[in-house]
Amino acid sequence: MVILLFFVISVLLSVSAVLFRNRTVTRIITLAFALVLILFTVYAWTRLNETELTYFTFDSTGLLLLSVLAILTLPTVYHGFIYTSGDTDKRYNIYHSGLIALMTFMAGAYLANNMTVLWIFVEATTLAVAVLIYHDRTEMSLEATWKYVFICSTGIALAYLGILFLGFIYGRGDAPNLSFTSFSLVLSHASPLYLKISFIFVLVGFSTKMGLFPMHTVTIDAHSVAPPPVSALISTTLMNVGFLAIFRVYKLFASTSVLPFMNHVLMLAGLLSLLIAAGYMLKAKHLKRMLAYSSLENMGLVAIALGAGGAGYYAALLLIVLHSFAKSSLFYQMGQLSRVLHTFKLDDCGRYMKLYPAGAMVLLTGMICILAIPPSGLFISELMIFRGLVANGQWFVLIASVILLSFVIYAMSTRIMHITFSDPRDENMVQLPGTVSPVETISQFLLLAIVIVLCFYQPPFLVDMINQGIGTFPR
Questions:
Q1: What domain range includes position 272?
Q2: pLDDT of residue 172
């Protein structure tokens, strides 16, 4: 089985990255993994909807998110090489070993067709990303790492309780079978109470990964200290893991009587996420925390999209894909900004357009894209969400969302403009600017170009993949 070969090779490469103390060898190993992941993704496209090893299926939604990970692999590895260039050999190797492990576990989570297997891979991502958060070995990174491990483990435990409640709908003989296909065959006979309790536990538990209210705080702290390439993964592909776990359970229950209940819960979680994101972004003084709250805002919109139904289903998946490209480019840029300005603090930043024009253009373009301002493809997603809310007569949610998004737009745009054009507020804290090659921005411009192109043209294969993923939802 090719998927077994992928896991075996990935584990061997991750272990080898720790054992070999030669940086050149580590770079070769990491690039080899990136190639393996890309080739595996290509193979998965040729096996659409097929199952391997019983527990893994190349379904449309999982394959779509796996493709996003494959696209982001090379730029993440590239910017990781740059960020870790000044590290000791030991830290350099541990970083890349953890990076390989994290991407492997995320790939497994995307393709898992069994609740237990999905749960195992999600928990594994917690251990892998904890190694990467602690990379800089500071007191703040140690605190953020322990907080991440504790809260994520608590959340995953809550999600497991939700899985146990799902098990109650079986007879004793069938209880071990927790595949999504098996669940779909017996849900019509399940107690709505068990389904509601299960969905609440799954939503709260996996929101630690998705970065959604009420367990959003763990990702905010992690972003403050994690290396920028790692933050790019946490805020995009790892959040996609949490989304997919919630999405699969929602998709299972969508054909039952608890659908209105789930929609109301998602609407509430989404609005509260928008409220918290808008409030904290208005007073954010740390640039990476600002981007973390922006991710919270986008995940809130995804939850609202699912709750709205109809066109919202398509909008949710499209928003997940576009957010991954736009937000990762901004986090990659944060790594370059810190080398030029030597800080992530807003008050100490300024004159970025003069000091590093290529990076400043990435910030401005990324701001337009992530705030869903045309020609950003996110504009199409948000427009579809609002159309879905209007069609359902959910005027309160629509008005509240628009007002909160206005605060988000104001908060982020004023900060990006200050960084780009204004003088630092405290000139005494300004250090001599560093230098960065404009070549490093190429990957960011390419990712942002994808976001812009998808505003005007969505290729048929993308439309088909999204429509397959939402094909069983009620219209």
A1: 268-475
A2: 45
